[in-house]
Amino acid sequence: MTTPIAAFEMRAITKRFSGVVANDRVTFTAMSGEVHALLGENGAGKSTLMNVLAGLYQPDEGAIYVHGQRAVFHSPRDAIAAGIGMVHQHFMLVPSQTVAENIVLGQRSLSFIPQRARIEAEVRRLGEQYGLPIDPRAPIWQLSVGEQQRVEILKLLYRGADILILDEPTAVLTPQETEGLFRTLREMTVAGKSIILISHKLDEVLAIADHITVLRGGKSMATVTAQAMTKAELARLMVGREVLFQVTKAVAQPGAPRLVLHKVAALDDKKLPALRDLSLIVHGGEIVGVAGVAGNGQRELAEIICGLRATLAGTITINTQTLTNASPLAMIEAGVAYVPEDRSATGSAPNLSVAENLVLKQFRTARFGRGILLSRRAIAKHAAGLINDYAIATPTVRTAARKLSGGNLQKVILAREIGSKPAVLVAAYPTRGLDVGAIENVRRLLLQGRDQGMAILLISEDLDEIFALSDRIVVLYEGAIMGEVKGEGADRQTIGLMMAGQRSPETAGSA
To answer: Edge-to-edge strand order for the sheet containing 455-459?
Structure first.
């Protein structure tokens, strides 16, 4: 039997940022022909380690070996030359250009126009070979999210990568697209490729990975065989304690309607239809989950409710008060809270402190000052309580929000919005980027809010989360509701088909 070959070895890698040790003598080895998952809590050092491997960062200590040879990467170009490429969670594609143009973008030695036909033929061949069919001449803006992911992977394959790093690759895929991606990854490993998978979805990791390396606090805790592990054991390695995956959910006791949308229509940023004749009711004391692939109107739906986007038609009612096209301040005063999709650009003020971010929507109240004079002591005390309650990792309450990890910035937003005890909470991807321990806490808080009478609209592409929390589920596709099902006993296959555009026999227009 042939001895497996190490695709790469990272030996005793240390990386520091302003005195903070992100990676502490981490050793990580992956073999050719395997899927190797990299797990860890928020801030455990996963992204830093992979950015070192991909040439975005240079290690302060340690060494990298690729196929047994010492390698030094000064840039991602050096890593690509060594056969290493990374598909980031947020795709790096130019929407106005074609698939083929994006795939060769940045390759200095390549003149595209004279070689267009050859390049397009090669892209088509690679797509067929690896089960990633795509039209090389299609503009990126016309492609679904799943198809755009194919382009990112084909970009690396075209450039000869045999070590592919995938960061949360299933976050924006339907169940059917996820199954297709996993088939592709297996075909790649058969061809000798090494796949490094960063993910928070432990069920998927156990289904696809051969080996798993777990980081905690910047250190490597263990490298294990996936077949020998359970979900609970992985979670314990990641967070250092037992994690409950099954949330305890009492039967919902819906009250009066708190959020009512009637025949709403809206445009997206390109002035194209984003919401079409959409009607939806959310009662106090229930969670209504909105399932769907990203880009099907979820962002626009959240923004019209929160006063951030105008409606073309229809009405929006909060607690019997018609507030169609009201300002964001009017919506806040009516009791609407919002956990947005974009935590940096929309959900926070990155240059303000953690404490200031935690009172962004309350600083006008007498509790925190009078007029333009703010009570720094009251703000700091309020922030310290929320930091403790929500386990926000920050050096001090005065630390700038932009210096926090993505997961901890998300906790700041959740603390501010849920802590205000709103009448209506619009939660868009509330656990995106959080580790299993933080996810457990967020789900508990959402259910507590529901039981206290909040009307919660939960927007998520994570079907496990939708199923675990929702009392009712609606599916959004191209701005219209494809159907509605009860949360209890919801069928994953049925939801997946509706996410792909197949309308259920009974639509949810009268939800």
So the answer is: 336-339, 424-428, 455-459, 286-291, 472-477, 480-486
Cα–Cα distance, 282 to 426 (Å, whole number) = 11
> What radius of gyration do the chain's Cα atoms show?
24
Q: In what order do the strands lie in the sheet with 61-66?
A: 20-31, 6-17, 61-66, 69-71
Residue 112, pLDDT score: 56
Binning pLDDT at 50, 70 and 90, where does residue 419 land?
Answer: confident
How confident is the model over 135-140, as a mean pLDDT?
Answer: 91
Is the pLDDT at 101 greater than 70? The verdict is yes
Q: Tell me the pairing of strands 257-267 and 313-318.
A: antiparallel
Q: What is the pLDDT of residue 509?
A: 41
Domains detected in the chain: 6-239 (3.40.50.300), 245-335+422-511 (3.40.50.300), 350-419 (no CATH)
Is residue 124 classed as helix, strand or coil in its secondary structure? helix
Residue 146: helix, strand or coil by DSSP? Answer: helix
Residues in the chain: 511
Residues forming beta bridges with residue 64, ordered by sequence position: 10, 71
Q: What are phi and psi of 402, to 5 degrees?
A: -65, -15
Question: What is the rounded average pLDDT for all residues in the chain?
Answer: 88
| Angle, in degrees to the nearest 10, between helices 175-190 and 492-499 | 90
- Residue 62's pLDDT is 97
Phi first, then psi: what are they for 65, rounded to 5°?
Answer: -125, 130
Residue among 289, 293, 438, 409 at smallest CA distance from 342? 409
| Residue that has been written with the tokens 């895929």 in this structure | 173
